[in-house]
Amino acid sequence: MSESIAILMATYNGARYIREQIMSIQSQTVQDWNLYIRDDGSSDGTIDIIRDFCLSDNRIHLFQDLEIHLGPKASFMKLLASINAEIYLFSDQDDVWNANKIGLTIAPFHQYNDNAVDDVPVLVHTNLSIVDQDLKVLTKTFHKKNISSNLQVLLPANNVTGCTVAINQNLKEIALNPNLKNIVMHDWWLALCAASLGKIYFIQASTMLYRQHGSNQVGTDRNFFDKIKRVFSSKKELNIFNSSIEQAKELLRKHEHHMSAEVRNLIREYIGLLDSSTRQQFSILVKYKFRKNSILGSLRLWMMIMLK
User: Fold this and answer.
1) How far is Cα 90 from Cα 165, in angstroms, rounded to an integer?
2) What angle do CA 13, 59, 46 make, to 5 degrees?
3) Strand 96-97 and strand 199-211: pairing?
C-alpha cells in the first residue's frame, strides 16, 4: 500500500482481551500499518502485554506520556493529535477485527482520491457484529439498514461507532483542538465535522466483532424490549440532548466560517430548540426534520424535547 495507515488504540485495564485484539490486527490482509497504543493508567498487566508485542513486532508502538485517567475521549484525541499518517483507524482494546477490516474500510478513500478530491475531509465507518465476552454472536448485523449521515440525524444522536471508523488527514486537521468539555465522544465529534464540512461513507458489511460485556454496554440495544425500556429513561435522554446542544455550539464556534450557509443555519436551528417554546420546537422539528435513525427513536426525541 502506498498510503501510511495509523491504527490508534486507547487502553485501560484491558489485559483480559487485548492480546486477542492485537493478534486480530496482526492477521489483517493489509499488513502495511502502524499500531499506536496509549494506556490511561492500567494496573492489571495491560502495559506488560503491550510491551511484549512491541518487542516482537516493530509496527506496534506504546505511546507514553505523564497523564493518566483521561478517559477514552481525551486519550483518542491526544493520540490523533500526536501521530501523523494519511489514514487513521480507531481500535478498542477488547474487540476482534475480521481479517479484511482494514482493506474494506480504506477502500472508499481510494475512490475519493481517484476523483481528485484529496482535500475533502472523509470519514468511513462500517457495520459490526455484537458478540458476548466469549465471542458468541448476539447480533450478526448491528445496523439492519443503511444509516443516515445527514446532520439532521447526527446532531441529536451519534450513529457512528468509533471502533469501526477511519478518517483521512484532512478530517483530522479540522477535528483537532475542540474544547473537550463540550464534545460528548471523539467518534461523534469526528462524524459531525465530516457531515458538516466533508463526506461520510458507510459500509454495510460487518468488519468486526464488538465484544459486549459489563463495562461497555452503551448504545447496543439488542431487541425491541431493550428499545422500549429506553423510551422511559427520560432523564438520560434529556442529558444526552443537552450535551448534544453544547456539542453543536462547539461545532459552530470552531467551524462556522468554513460552513455553507445552509449547514450553518441548520446547526443554529438545532441549538435554538433548547430555548424555544413548544410551538416553535414543533415547527423547527417539522421543518428541518431533526430525528434519530429509527421511527421509535425519533418519536422519543420529539416527545422528550417538547415535554421537557
Assistant:
1) 6
2) 10
3) antiparallel
> Tell me, what's the pLDDT at 231?
52
Q: Which three cell numbers stand for residue 251?
A: 461545532
**Which three cell numbers, joined as nine digits, stand for 32?**
502495511
pTM (two decimals): 0.91
* Residues β-bridged to residue 8: 36, 90
CA dist 193 and 64 (Å) reads 28
- Of 9-23, 43-57, 102-116, 246-260, the one with minimum mean pLDDT is 102-116
CA dist., res. 34 & res. 85, Å (int): 9
Tell the residue number behind the cell numbers 503491550, with chain if given: 50
Going from the C-alpha of 297 to that of each of 22, 118, 287, 304, the distances in angstroms are 35, 36, 18, 10
User: Residue 233 pLDDT > 70, yes or no?
Assistant: no
Whole-angstrom Cα distance, residue 278 to residue 275? 9
The predicted structure's pLDDT at residue 145: 83
In Å, how far are 117, 130, 291, 298 from 163, measured between CA atoms?
25, 12, 24, 25
Structural Rg of the chain based on CA atoms: 19
**What are the b/e assignments for 238-262, b being 16+ CB within 10 Å?**
eebbeebbbbbbbbbebbeeebeee
Q: Which helix (H) or strand (E) holds 9?
A: strand 5-11
Whether residue 9 contacts residue 91, with contact meaning beta carbons closer than 8 Å, is answered with yes
Count CB-CB contacts under 10 A for residue 215: 9
Distances (CA, A) of 87 to 173, 189, 289: 12, 17, 33
CA 126 to chain CA centroid, Å, is 11
- The mean pLDDT value for 150-174 works out to 96
Q: How would you classify residue 109: left for phi > 0, otherwise alpha for psi between -120 and 50, otherwise beta?
A: alpha
What is residue 148's predicted lDDT score, i.e. its pLDDT?
87
pLDDT at 190 over 50: yes
- Contact criterion met (CB below 8 Å) for 206 and 144: no
Report how far Cα 255 is from the mean position of its chain's Cα atoms: 19
